[in-house]
Model the fold of this input.
Amino acid sequence: MKTAFIGLGRMGAGMAACLCRAKLDVTVYNRSPERMQPLVALGAKGASNVAEACAGADVVFSMLADDVAVEEAALSPVGIREYLRPGAIHVSCSTISIALSEALAAAHREAGQGYLAVPVFGRPEAAAAGKLYLVAAGDGKLVETVQPLLDVLGQRTYVVSERPSNANLVKLSGNFLIATVIESLGEAMALVEKGGVNRHQYLELLTSSLFNLPLYKNYGGMIADGKFEPAGFAVPLGQKDVRLALAAGEELQVPLPFANILRDRFLELRAHGGDQLDWCAIGSLAARDAGLLPEH
Amino acid sequence: MKTAFIGLGRMGAGMAACLCRAKLDVTVYNRSPERMQPLVALGAKGASNVAEACAGADVVFSMLADDVAVEEAALSPVGIREYLRPGAIHVSCSTISIALSEALAAAHREAGQGYLAVPVFGRPEAAAAGKLYLVAAGDGKLVETVQPLLDVLGQRTYVVSERPSNANLVKLSGNFLIATVIESLGEAMALVEKGGVNRHQYLELLTSSLFNLPLYKNYGGMIADGKFEPAGFAVPLGQKDVRLALAAGEELQVPLPFANILRDRFLELRAHGGDQLDWCAIGSLAARDAGLLPEH
Amino acid sequence: MKTAFIGLGRMGAGMAACLCRAKLDVTVYNRSPERMQPLVALGAKGASNVAEACAGADVVFSMLADDVAVEEAALSPVGIREYLRPGAIHVSCSTISIALSEALAAAHREAGQGYLAVPVFGRPEAAAAGKLYLVAAGDGKLVETVQPLLDVLGQRTYVVSERPSNANLVKLSGNFLIATVIESLGEAMALVEKGGVNRHQYLELLTSSLFNLPLYKNYGGMIADGKFEPAGFAVPLGQKDVRLALAAGEELQVPLPFANILRDRFLELRAHGGDQLDWCAIGSLAARDAGLLPEH
Amino acid sequence: MKTAFIGLGRMGAGMAACLCRAKLDVTVYNRSPERMQPLVALGAKGASNVAEACAGADVVFSMLADDVAVEEAALSPVGIREYLRPGAIHVSCSTISIALSEALAAAHREAGQGYLAVPVFGRPEAAAAGKLYLVAAGDGKLVETVQPLLDVLGQRTYVVSERPSNANLVKLSGNFLIATVIESLGEAMALVEKGGVNRHQYLELLTSSLFNLPLYKNYGGMIADGKFEPAGFAVPLGQKDVRLALAAGEELQVPLPFANILRDRFLELRAHGGDQLDWCAIGSLAARDAGLLPEH
Done:
């Protein structure tokens, strides 16, 4: 099976490397060509544009930052849809809106191509190690076809629906859940700290008892340290995902009161110049509102 | 060391049984005397009132439902303060308000008695098995004195502060955190379910990947099943803890936006007759707001 | 000055009629042609499409339901921009998004045409009576040019900015303010009614003392009566305006906590089939949450 | 009818003066005796304690700052209940909790005394001019008896219920409504100002069109000016009233989402040292969150 991989950011680079290490036939493409070098070193072919990447491919993966980048790479006149052969499959791994995922599904269907949404959970290290969790949705036969590739990328694939955009919905809901963990830790820490409890000790208590989970440890640790740079996942990206979750809620008519609060937290951070911070910096705002922290 | 245990509800009974099994000299007291039987069978002496329980005791534990019960048992004319000998220690394990914990501290100090707040995390099964997590605060020497007893009750004791009420604050903040888990799962499930994803499958995905934690599994499972009876921890108790967390936030001047939303959830449940439900029934309200569930 | 008026809904019909009664040279256009009849009876010429309406016009007013309708009427290949002569002015009175208003400004600028945003406050009766409040923004000279026409339409014109979209921002913020009045009345009425106070009497008290304002009387009366049909301004329109206000807040990085709550109220109403209700039906949800009203 | 007036703060002094000017037989009492002087100059007798004020009185008014002050003045061993003769009436005008109002009702009933709750709307100037709005609740015959006195104090009396505490509920709900006006103006102004609209001009627009009401003008003006000192009604008092409204909502099981937001606003202000500000300073926080204002 001839495979192409478009988008070699922190996540995509690791994923493409896994495919290379599995001795698959991989062509890679990235807008900034220097990021293709390490993959070529691992045996990939480098393409100079999307058209070249798609030429002859059976499966094209894309892993890009946001709706704008995916729309450009997939639906523009120089995009995947134009160059992918009928019958081949586009596996979109990016975290994108429900609306765009549905537009991709329709566009590929019209062009006689397959389309799967397979967003992922996990950080760059998990991507590099082939340890991601994959959330797949779309036609069952297509999933079967690409399953061997997905097995290379992740430790488990969850097939959630025949409707591709449902995988995106699950991904957005998952990021929403993570953001609620951050906010709730921020509030709880502000409360106990203002009462006189040391927040590092408090976090150790939580994460060695009822909240013994990397999510709570990692984000809790960053909040306790007040250290939000360098960003693993920056504020504008976190804000985007909450925005997309809210947009999905609006489309589906589902009120999401916790998401509203997250929305305002991100706006406040950005209004005060927090774009370069890790998204878990929203967990510092409760302490700030309580008068515990130096002002922005 | 002569020990007394007052309050043999689902939690207290298990804790007292642990002390008995450890071959300690234990006197128990409960308002409904029939609940003392199993403990007597384990070797405890049964007292017919608080005064009798306190007679000669070096350490008195209390584990009661709420502020009203604790105030009656500890501060009334027939309460612990009246009958505990100077130098003996009252270990209060109940989940109570900061204000009452501070009143207890002051009252015992005046009476020349010791006071520790040692609220616990864990369910009745953990209490029965001596596997609780204990959060202790108060004078360090007193903690040292009772530590052997605490070791019988729990798998670990976290000493968080010299100020007893800080243990209560930590306990309240912990229950707040659990409630945020419930609400966020309720919102996320409503969102994906209305989009067409099966909520049991969704929960399995979450709890076998990023949210692999009993808390998410247990409460998520109840929400997915829509089964909130019989209550392990009933709505009025959950509401009480959120109310006390908010009261602590008000006292300490810490805004808690997530807690506000939880507050309204509990009010809505109670206004619709949900008093007998498990507190995680608040996790069903997002689905109801989204038009997914039959109305109350 | 030759004038055209596009969009003869409940608001536009009244506004166009004012222009006719002022003996101005008016051409009208509406997609459903039967709505042009009453205007023709008042002396207007009827056009059979936007092109014909624009032919020779010095000023074209548009008053349409939403972004989609305005985009179609103004920016499509059969829209105002294509047919308006250079130097003529498009006066957009619709309640639209900041983004579309800025797109219109750019498009007309490129085409050498003038563009003013002049959204209005007031109900259909005020439109018919020439008693609207007009909020104008754009180039000062253009405002001056059309001022005599605006004087026919409204009792007062507020010029708020040189930037057209700022008039739309003011309009959206105004509708947001009205929606907060509705929600706050809904909450206050639910509270006092559940305590045993008659809500009609309560409203009379409010509106004859501190809240002596038609807004409070009218919306309060509908909430007290529980009568939300027929809709003067339907739920999806109210929702749209809150959505646009939130979108403006997101663009400008301004958290709007009250608007978040309004957002959820509209979603809940729509999820329960409330599309045909007047938007002030959100004022009934507090009572429903409190268990006072029959369920949806 | 022999009348006593207890509590000569800014409101009480004006009310008592009205009674004096109406040539009634008035005895006044205030803890700080110097505030009695101006009333004595108007013909009142000065009492040196509550007992003396109550001696021979047919009606005793009380107008005090909060629950603590009212409880001391009415229910303590040196309070009104001890000294008022059976059959005489206590008219409580203070803004107090539902719970205290019900405790007062019960205490006076037991003592064979009458009790009416008659909280007022209006500022000190309205009190001095006899132009208050009075909200009365309690036994109808008692209201009839004191009506001539109420007519001296206010421009209108609204009798809302036979249950005294319902008047307090209405008062609390009214202050809640005023606070929502402040918050919504704060959000709207932050939004338009960040978009580039002058907030003074914006306020003039609002208050000369749809929001032509002193409430919007006065509070809007203070927010636009950013001038919150000296306080007409200080932050802790505003916070208290929102707290009492929330407490009433909790007791009656009525969720109040807008009130939750107000609650957090007051906490944030106080956490940053805003106790001496006028309560409408909460209207500045939206702008601060949006990065528009200098930090606290």
